[in-house]
Amino acid sequence: MTLADATQLAAATNEHLANISNTLIYSSMAVYTLAFFAYIAEWIFGSRSKVGRTAAALTAEGAGAGGARTGPAVTVTKAGGTAVLERPKVVVRSAAGARDVPDGPGAAGGTEKGDLYGRVAISLTVLAFLIEFGGVLTRALSVQRAPWGNMYEFSITFSTVAVGVYVVLLLLKKNIRWLGLPLVTTVLLDLGLAVTVLYTASDQLVPALHSYWLYIHVSTAILCGAVFYVGAVSTLLYLFKDSYENKLATGGTPGRFANSVLDRLPAAASLDKFAYRVNAAVFPLWTFTIIAGAIWAGDAWGRYWGWDPKETWSFITWVAYAGYLHARATAGWKGRKAAYLALIAFGCWLFNYYGVNIFVSGKHSYAGV
Amino acid sequence: MSKTTTDGTRKAGDDQELGAAGSQLSTAPAEEGPNPPAMGVVGWVRWFWRQLTSMRVALLLLLLLSLGAIPGSLIPQTGVDATKVEQFYQDHETLAPVYEKLGLFHVYSSVWFSAVYILLFVSLIGCIVPRTWQFVGQLRGRPPRAPRRLTRLPAYTTWRTGAAPEEVREAALKLLRKRRFRAHRDGDAVAAEKGYLREVGNLAFHIALIVMLIAFGWGQLFKYEGNKLVLEGDGFSNTLTQYDDFKSGNLWSQDDLAPFSFTLKDFRGTYEPSGPNRGTPRTFEARITYSVGAYGKEKSTTVKVNEPLEIDGSKVYLVSHGYAPIVTVKDAEGDVVVDHEPFALLPLDANVTSSGAIKVMDGYRNAKGEKEQLGFNAFFLPTYGGKGSTMLSTFPALLNPMLALSAYHGDLGVDSGIPQSVYQLDDKNLKEFKDSKGELYKKQLKVGQTMTLPGGNGSVTFDGIQEWAGFQVTAQPGSGWALGGAVVAILGLAGSLFIQRRRVWVRAVAGADGVTVVELAGLGRSESAKLPEELGDLAGVLYDTFPEPTAEPTAEPTAEPTAERAEKK
Ligand code: HEM
């Protein structure tokens, strides 16, 4: 082959677009930072309201029945359809043994000012998301391939997808505004790492990465990671909120910070359920991701499974999540123990991404640090 | 097996209340305490079996499996990279033997790791079989009858109507069947159940796991994997003797080799020419012609990385490439003893700095007319940086090729019977050619240049370069089954996690005042917002057919409503 051949190929890499991409990523970081401060403001203004719903629910109930639950409370929903008023109503009972705690009012704590800042924060998050999305898109165009050929690209795409998941859940009117602050904090950390430590100039891929399986396998891996992340944050907050509720229910007095912050989160049961739904929903996709990876490995390396460190950690992550799902169906493992398992499983996912790429060498290492 | 569990979210007090209605909503095995029995051997065996197939032990084994997989990813593995294992032995003299004893250099085939997954799969089979029977039993039976007090169920609604109870029950039965519930009339009520696919999915998933494990194990036993370096223009036929190295599973036999042959016409590699990633490979492809069987028709194709050629269950992968300098060697008389022959060298780094040996075994006579053998240590740089630069290639393609040779004569030792690498000189019986200063005679050659051996002992000419490609031929039977299992596993999992299994009861009885009271109640495996929605929908349809007579119903729900929570998801 001649140098002329090679030069033609190089023309594919478009410097200009790559520069635009970098600018967009930096801009999105600036906007995320603004959003971060807006979320903080929301939490601060929200703390002025003295709601104490959790405490009210738990202590009132406790006082009424001498500490024991009086049996599950009953709630009423309207039946669907237009003739709502005439149709019979469905009575919903929460599970026996479950604490009946209302969901918190959210970060804004029902205050007008807090709510205003919260709305600003969400608008800024959406704006930053759009800018970051543009950054990922131009990066992809500049290299004329999927934007996940190395850890830098993986990181920017990952945080974009994570915020995307959040925005979609908001659009679906799910009660997850509380996720905003932790999410934006992580995204800023992730992007900070990406532009400093992990930055790689835009370029094409080595031949082993030329495959449509790259699109399938890595895109689902990123989506799974983003959703697992949402599940993990929810699980973590569940653990905090659950301790808080336990303390209240047993007559303890939680600290001022807990009273102010945790009270505004959804009820522990809601957080737990949300975490379970999220994790269970992506588990089949994660299974698919591993299998797609195995098919690709079969094409690229001549064996579909070879216990390469990356494969091994995907497997460990998978088994850990399967363990979590099992734990939820096993007496004595529901609740907090299962939640710890979920966190460990997410830890495995994280290690698979950062740890294996940085500390362990294997066939996947050319993904470029 | 006769034991059943009730909806996991409910406590004992409620269970009695719900009776059989809540039972068998899942086929999960019954929870049993870990207290051993006070019986004889049979009792112990039964107890052990129950423990092994319990959810708790399955969970424990799952966690052990993931824990056990960790060391294999951190400690070098013989099966993945044998040279790293050797390195580890040198670096950790005390630790390595301990690791060896624990099987930590081959974790995934070690006794303890195998023990964990075999136990897990025994547990799995021991779990699936009774669950399947139980499920078949549930399918052959009917949805359980309505509990006495429907108000106790997680979703409930009621109203009064002027229609006769029989009429309402009839309509409810029809409606539920239309909604694909399995429904039957049961005294004064209709009992219905839906979402059996959840259990089917769950069982299919667990069975698929077993299929995948067997397929993987089968593949390991019957697989083979061989490597062959082929020069441009040369051919290969798939027989054991042709391979440079070859590995196979324990049950593999030579007859399992697919009969085919191929010829490498041309290898092509392109590389990033500039920028920070200069030299990074862009494309590798090998043009080959191949034929299957002894008299097969010749076909041509291109093998690329990621795109193996599949022949008869075997796959031919392009795995490596390198250069083979072409040389001509003349003896002291000027007779050609090596005529324009390529010698493949092995790449040492990403820029294909290569090393190897050129061995002249027959036909050479030295200046004294004696028969001798010649050996050269060869070092090749596809792109030489120029005088004064290091002896490392600066680019993987042939921009400025340079061949550096150092010359020896004597006995190569190839006839001693000890197998020898073609890429290395065994210098035990070799003598160095000396230059004028008395040092080992070396020379750097560009294409077309000749190295004249001291003392009129002949010459070596660097004629040009040929490329070679390394192929790996593998076959792993059972991969179709593994893939099939994987697909079923995903579908089963989706069914198991996304489908809700739930029961609905409709009771219609004449109240004390003669007016019919209709009650609807639903029960799912977990509290889901979907269940009340579905129940409300069913109730709505029934209500439209059998509306309230005139006044408000008297049978209002007992506890006080806290409306807002229900709005939340
Ligand atoms: C190879 C290891 C195994 C894996 C990866 C695995 C994975 C899973 C997954 C992902 C689920 C879905 C969880 C859900 O429905 O929420 C599940 C459910 C289940 N598994 Fe396994 N499993 C394994 C072994 C076993 C074993 C050995 C048993 C028997 C003791 C078992 C019994 C069950 C049961 C009864 C369910 C249904 C639980 C329910 O109805 O919620 N599994 N399993």
From TrEMBL, chain A:
One of its GO terms (biological process) is cytochrome complex assembly. Its main location: membrane. Residues 148-361 form the Cytochrome c assembly protein domain. It comes from the Bacteria. It is a multi-pass membrane protein. It is found in: Membrane. This is C-type cytochrome biogenesis protein CcsB.
TrEMBL record, chain B:
InterPro entries: Cyt_c_bgen_Ccs1/CcsB/ResB (IPR023494), ResB-like_domain (IPR007816). Keywords: Cytochrome c-type biogenesis, Membrane, Transmembrane, Transmembrane helix. Residues 55-535 form the ResB-like domain. It is a multi-pass membrane protein. The chain crosses the membrane at residues 57-75, 111-133, 203-222, 481-499. Residues 546-561 have a biased composition (Low complexity). Residues 1-34, 546-569 are annotated as: Disordered. It is found in: Membrane. This is Cytochrome c biogenesis protein.
